[in-house]
Amino acid sequence: MARRILILDNADDGALAWLYANCRFSVFPSLLEGFGLPVAESLAAGKLCVASSSSGVPEAAQGQAILIAPDDAEVWTATISRLIESDEDIRAAEQRIAAGYRRRTWIDTASRILDILGRHGLMPGRPGGSDA
């Protein structure tokens, strides 16, 4: 495998952008994630991601990634093998991503947090908020 897989540590933003732009698809077999930023990055670049179905990854994927249980090696192997061979599956996935994936900005995230806090009366100085 070492002759076929290259692991890059600490790739900078330029290298990541090039890799996402030039990959066939990405793979993210994480066991535990808070959000799954590599999944979001891959999808934002218009590339399919085969990712773990654990923790925060499904939220980051927005229904656009192929999610697999992290411990199901047989399904991972079959899925990756199929995608390596199937131009049609890759094209269809990229079309779905282009139509359905929405990049989330920091402003989107902050607005969502403020909205949740406001609905729970936790925004001082705002209607429904607590000034205590």
What report would you give on this structure?
It is a single chain. The chain is mainly alpha-helical. It has a domain of 87 residues: Rossmann fold (3-Layer(aba) Sandwich), CATH 3.40.50. 48% of the residues lie in helices and 8% in strands.
State the main characteristics.
three-stranded parallel sheet, single chain, 3 strands, Rossmann fold, 132 residues
Q: What is shown here, in short?
A:
The protein is mostly helical and 132 residues long. It has helices at 13-22, 37-44, 57-61, 73-85, 87-100, 106-119; strands at residues 26-28, 49-52, 66-68. It contains 6 helices and 3 strands.
What order do the helices and strands come in, and which of them pair?
Blueprint: H1 13-22, E1 26-28, H2 37-44, E2 49-52, H3 57-61, E3 66-68, H4 73-85, H5 87-100, H6 106-119
Parallel strand pairs: 1-2, 2-3
| Fourth-tier CATH superfamily name of the domain at 15-101 | Glycogen Phosphorylase B
Number of strands: 3
Low-confidence stretches: none
Percent of residues in helices comes to: 40-55%
Arithmetic mean pLDDT: 89
The portion of residues forming beta strands comes to 5-15%
Query: What would you report as the Rg, rounded to the nearest angstrom?
Result: 18 Å
**How would you spell out the order of helices and strands?**
HEHEHEHHH
The largest β sheet comes out as:
3 strands, parallel
Give the structural class. Answer: mainly alpha
Q: What's the level 1 CATH class of the domain at 15-101?
A: Alpha Beta
Please give the CATH architecture of the domain at 15-101: 3-Layer(aba) Sandwich
Shape: elongated
